[in-house]
């Protein structure tokens, strides 16, 4: 008697590897985005905080230099809305829904009432979800 081989195991292994690769790519992209954001934050704000402590200890920092470092930190805050859409597709989609310049033609503008009803646990949606649970 011969025992037939199960063909689903190699397929399951390849599916598992594909899922792992996809998950790894997402994790790598998220790590890259976080690294860029934190790196820019430290490059922009660390000199300001070091200078601030130095100013408190010795009082030898010129006011103009302190102002330049403050504006460097402000520039970092300006860069965040540029960096997020470049690296995060979900952020780009969300901004596209609410900014008139990024909305596709034919897409209705979401109203504040529909937005609040979507995020609340009241109304017909709560009744429907309760019915699905029971």
Automatic annotation (TrEMBL):
GO molecular function, one term: G protein-coupled receptor activity
Metal-binding among keywords: no
Protein name per the record: 5HT6R protein
Membrane topology summary: Multi-pass membrane protein
Keywords: Cell membrane, G-protein coupled receptor, Membrane, Receptor, Transducer, Transmembrane, Transmembrane helix
Domain of life: Eukaryota
Main subcellular location: membrane
GO terms, biological process: adenylate cyclase-activating adrenergic receptor signaling pathway; positive regulation of MAPK cascade
Source organism of this protein record: Sapayoa aenigma
Parts of the chain that traverse the membrane: 27-48, 68-87
InterPro entries per the UniProt record, alphabetical: GPCR_Rhodpsn (IPR000276), GPCR_Rhodpsn_7TM (IPR017452)
Domain G-protein coupled receptors family 1 profile, chain residue ranges per copy: 1-84
Cellular localization per UniProt: Cell membrane
Keyword Cell membrane: yes
One Gene Ontology term, aspect cellular component: plasma membrane
């Amino acid at each position: 008697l011969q025992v037939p081989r199960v063909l689903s195991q190699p397929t399951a292994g390849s599916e598992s590897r594909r899922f792992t690769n996809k998950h790894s790519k997402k994790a790598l992209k998220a790590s890259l985005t976080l690294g860029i954001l934190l790196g820019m934050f430290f490059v922009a704000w660390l000199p300001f905080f070091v200078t601030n402590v130095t100013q408190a200890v010795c009082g030898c920092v010129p006011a103009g230099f302190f102002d330049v470092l403050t504006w460097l930190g402000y520039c970092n805050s300006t860069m965040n809305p540029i960096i997020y859409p470049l690296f995060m597709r979900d952020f780009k989609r969300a901004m596209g829904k609410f900014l008139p310049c990024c909305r596709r033609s034919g897409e209705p503008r979401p109203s504040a009432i529909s937005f609040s009803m979507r995020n609340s646990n009241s109304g017909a949606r709560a009744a429907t979800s309760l019915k699905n649970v029971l």
